Amino acid sequence: MPFNPERFDLSQTASESFSLAEPLAGKKKIVLESNIPQGSWVKADRNMISTVFRNLLSNAIKFTPQGGRVTLELKRLSVENGQDCYEVSVSDNGIGIPKERLGQLFRMDNTESTKGTANESGTGLGLLLCYDFVIRNSGSLRAESEIGKGSRFIFTLPAMK
């Protein structure tokens, strides 16, 4: 995929991704909540970041049971080198990920797909793609999870003023 960074507002991209995720969430009666304020400007490849949003939202919905919640949040962080960044998190109150699997999520030799709470399937490649796209945009991606309580995927992107 070609790399075409441009200035754009993360809130707009998140909103577009939410619109695409709503039918899937609606089937499982999952509440989607976004706390990304307008004016959250970044310089990144919009298509890549849109793919990251869609994939992380889709995964959160996939592993959240009926009536659950998926939340998108944003924090601005000051970094020592003077380049602030945004920390974006996609959280759910789903089934969680076992600790032994957390460290393998972004590894090429581990593309095992896990069935969702409504028996949804996937390719096992989505998180690898997200990882690659975030890294290519000078960010980072990590995951936190607790069995039975849910997961939180956090990525960073350099912020613009």
Offer a few descriptive terms.
alpha+beta; two-stranded antiparallel sheet; five-stranded mixed beta sheet; 7 strands; 4 helices; 161 residues
Strand and helix layout:
Layout: E1 5-9, H1 10-27, E2 31-35, E3 41-45, H2 46-62, E4 69-77, E5 85-92, H3 99-102, H4 126-136, E6 141-146, E7 150-158
Parallel strand pairs: 2-4
Antiparallel strand pairs: 1-3, 4-5, 5-7, 6-7
| Computed CA radius of gyration, to the nearest angstrom | 15 Å
Helix and strand sequence: EHEEHEEHHEE
Structural class: alpha+beta
Taking the alpha carbons of the first and last residues, their distance comes to 27 Å
Instruction: Trace the largest sheet across and list its strands.
Output: 2-4-5-7-6
Biggest β-sheet strands, sense, barrel: 5 strands, mixed
Low-confidence stretches: none
In total, how many beta strands?
7
Helix content: 25-40%
Detailed description of the structure:
A hairpin with a 7-residue loop joins strand 4 (69-77) and strand 5. The two termini are 27 Å apart. The protein is globular. The strands form two sheets. The protein has a five-stranded mixed sheet. It has a two-stranded antiparallel ribbon with strand order 1-3. The model has no long low-confidence stretch (mean pLDDT 90). The chain is α+β, with helices and mostly antiparallel strands and 161 residues long. It is built from four helices and seven strands, in the order βαββαββααββ.
